[in-house]
Design brief:
Elements lengths: L3 H4 L4 H12 L5 H10 L4 H16 L3 H15 L12 H8 L9 E7 L5 E9 L9 H10 L4 E7 L9 H17 L3 E8 L2 E4 H5 L3
Parallel strand pairs: 3-4
Antiparallel strand pairs: 1-2, 1-3, 4-5
Helix pairs in contact: 2-3, 2-5, 4-5
Length: 207
């Protein structure tokens, strides 16, 4: 019987390394399958995942996630940086697209470097967007920790209607003001839903 590593073709070499990081010298079949899937993630997306993303999105235990994230960070120092710049709301939408069909409302911050390349995605809130639940520190503390120079916020409307609520507008204005004060501007706030999206930058005429 062939294993996931053997079926992975050209990615088998990297899959095998990931499997050994996660499962030791003789990884189990489910670990091999996970490794094969992880090997297909582009390098720039790996940087955004980090250990927390590996644990949250791929069900990897905390210790193993830390080891793999460290391995990827080490490898990244020896490879060219292939992260694409986020130059438009459409570019950002591609990175937030998994939110579109989420069943619970979630708020995610996309943290960008000086060339507007993604550093990481940070989940900052779960539940409806309002001033009592989402504070500026929830968004900008992670940004400052990783030396981000700009932020884009994305959140979903499980109702399917991307139209911003009054609370969405109040929170967006507060975050934009906080970002300007901190020197980490809020470039956009995107609302994603099954039936479309809303970009504050596009519709409100942000400079």
């Amino acid at each position: 019987m062939t294993t996931a590593l053997e079926r992975d073709g050209e990615g088998g070499g990297e899959s095998r390394l990931i499997a050994r990081v996660l499962g030791g010298a003789r990884p189990a079949a489910d670990v091999e399958a996970t490794a094969a899937r992880l090997a297909r993630i582009p390098f720039w997306e790996r940087r955004m995942l980090g250990a927390r993303g590996l644990a949250r999105d791929h069900g990897i235990g905390a210790d193993r996630a830390e080891r793999l994230a460290a391995l990827w960070e080490f490898a990244e120092r020896w490879t060219s940086d292939d992260r694409p710049a986020v130059a438009s709301p459409r570019d950002a939408l591609l990175l937030f697209d998994p939110l579109r069909h989420a069943r619970r409302e979630q708020v995610v911050a996309l943290l960008l470097d000086a060339r507007h390349r993604p550093i990481r995605r940070e989940a900052v809130a779960v539940g409806s967007v309002n001033a009592s639940r989402l504070q500026a520190r929830d968004v900008f503390a992670p940004a400052l920790r990783c030396d981000a120079v700009a932020v884009i916020i994305g959140h979903n409307h499980p109702s399917g209607d991307p139209s911003p609520s009054r609370a969405d507008r109040i929170v967006t204005a507060a975050l934009r003001s906080a970002g300007d004060l901190l020197g980490v501007p809020l470039l956009d706030h995107l609302i994603l839903a099954a039936h479309g999206h809303h970009s504050f930058r596009e519709t409100e005429g942000w400079d």
